[in-house]
Amino acid sequence: MITISVKLPEWMIKLIDDLVHQELYSSRSEFIREAIRSHLEKYINNLNISEMYVSVPQD
Q: CA–CA separation, 24 vs 44, rounded Å?
């Protein structure tokens, strides 16, 4: 894995820490990975839907 640095507002960190404290996630990193994964999956699904409506030029 590659490490990146992300700056987040304090209120987000507090909420993430609450979720970790409730043992819904094992760490901040796990939460952030899951949030990014979820967002990217939605993005990919939207791309697939969009491609259905884009006509491919015929030769």
A: 26
| Tally of domains in the chain | 1
9-25 burial, b if ≥16 CB within 10 A, otherwise e?
eeeeeeebeeebeeeeb
| Residue 29, domain extent | 9-37
Q: Which two tokens stand for residue 10?
A: 């304090």
Tens of pLDDT, residue by residue, the chain (59 residues): 899 999 999 999 999 999 999 999 999 999 999 999 999 999 988 887 767 666 555 55
Name the pTM for this structure.
Answer: 0.75
